[in-house]
Amino acid sequence: QVQLVESGGGLVQPGGSLRLSCAASGIAFNIYTMGWYRQAPGKQRELVAGITSGGRTNYADSVKDRFTISRDNAKYTNYLQMSSLKPQDTAVYYCSAKGPFAAAPGYWGQGTQVTVSS
Prior knowledge:
Blueprint (H helix, E strand, L loop, with lengths): L2 E5 L2 E3 L5 E8 L7 E7 L6 E6 L5 E3 L7 E6 L4 E6 L8 E8 L8 E2 L3 E5 L2
Parallel strand pairs: 2-11
Antiparallel strand pairs: 1-3, 3-8, 4-5, 4-9, 5-6, 7-8, 9-10, 9-11
């Protein structure tokens, strides 16, 4: 049984920081591409950041230089460090896992709410 469990969301003021964590189980974590997506009310889910099994990363233009994705294969966990947060970063953030031969993520977490507001 595959599980992706996110944590670390919450309410933060503009300019603040948060670190999201995603703990995985039931998959060979080290061969999966891990990602973070977000969905704001009334908007489509969008890719925020991804990290391959080899550690290559990619980011949405809107979060470049503010967010950093990383992974710890020994802990089956990946992270999203978010800095200089803006109100437009408010969304539900979802962790994803994509297998080595898959075109799209096959597994998703339940989501964690991030609210940026003063």
